[in-house]
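Quick question: what would this complex look like in 3D?
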Amino acid sequence: MARHVIAKVEEVDIGKSKLVKVAGRDIALFNVKGEFFAIANRCPHEGADLCRGQVVGLAEADEPGKVRMTRHGELIRCPWHGWEFDIRTGKSWCDPARTRVKSFDVSVASGGALAEGPYQAETFPVSIDEDYVVVEI
Amino acid sequence: MNHAVLDKDTKADAKLGIVDCDIHPAFGSPAELAKFLPVRWRDHLADYGQRSANPVVGTLPYPRMTPGNGMRRDAWPPNGGPPASDLAFLQEQLLDPLGIEYGILQPLAAGSSTLNQELGAAMCAAVNDWQLDKWTGPDPRLKASISVTQEDVPAALAEIEARIGDRSFAQIAIPPRTIEPAGRRRYWPIYEAAEHYDMPIGMHSAAYGQHANSGAGWLNFYIEEHYAFSHSLQSVVTSMVFEGVFERFPKLKLVVVEGGFAWAAPLMWRLDKQWERMRSEVPHVKRPPSDYIRENVWFTTQPIEEPENNRHLLDTLRWVGTDRLMFSTDYPHWDFDDPRFAFKVPLSPTERAQIFRDNAKRVYRLP
């Protein structure tokens, strides 16, 4: 597993996505209410770009006419056929056991933490203030 | 629940050379069509507007997903305008990357279903001119549909006569929810012309039509309307078989567009069974209904029925007949099918060639 810096935190607003290419893969990065998640940018149905889809909530009803909206901004709807996936896990809402998009571990790290390595060489003072989004592949 | 999941990457097949039988060109703005209308009808539209038999004036009867009434969200041209209104972007997003050798245009302008039929005829003529000017002229991969007012048969025949010599047109387009069942004799002159000129009749499901979208009236939800495309087309096929259209016009080609196709197999079984028992009611129908369907009717593939077990699609394809199926994307609509990933079953090279190219080339007489 290697860690790849893929964006600055402020590049992706809440509810938005960014397409990044990491280690030869197209990955769709999402900001869900301030948390970052990454899934493969490819719908398992016919291959549409998931980063071009609509970020939606979940409409549920226990009986006709009684609809409630939950999980605002936590699902991505494929831009073609509307298949919905949980952005946190990549699992399909309709068929989570069999249909899923590959998801990747994402974290936010400060520039300072990223600059620190396992080996210590001579160092010079460098200041990095921004937070970066890091994906592990 | 739909379990159809991609389990086979078929990218190499894009090289096949594909005929896409269902592409929906759009106007960049209403003025684009007005340019092809006589002043009399331009003024009429400005003063009175256009009225179809739909219950909700000036809009589609059902609001659809995504901005733009059911478009692919990634199909909006970067230079503005609605999806499929920009030839360069259509080439870049559809024709070039997917290896589309020919694309059949299915304009969904409501000229055919306009209540004022003289206006409808003028709109059909304008849509036909527009297809040549904006699409088939600049990109000969695209083939046009002769839009006609089927309820005004003399006007439809005049339009067919005016266009028939131009091989930029590949079919005669009629919306399936006609004012009378499609097999009725009032429409026969159109079928006679189609047979005479060896021009298929394309029946494309659409929001527009002369009747409610189900036998019980207008349905509540778009999800129901989308399914209703199938049964309106089953009614078309059944009526044309039992009214004797295919008996009278044995070389007539009917293309059923965007209605699905899996239903065609049980429909044939059912009609044959009924015909065996009650053929004396329709003595003009000389052969089993499935005979006519297997000789005169073709189905475009989108929307593909997707069984829980992918492999069951193979059974369906063989029941319907791979010689009856013609691939379509329905670009730029939300239920677009990508030819690289649409059939998640191991078709033989022959079957693949039939469905993606050869059947359509023969039906539409494409070089």
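Answer marked as accepted. Chain B touches chain A at residues 1-6, 65-66, 72-74, 334-338, 340-342 (CB under 8 Å).
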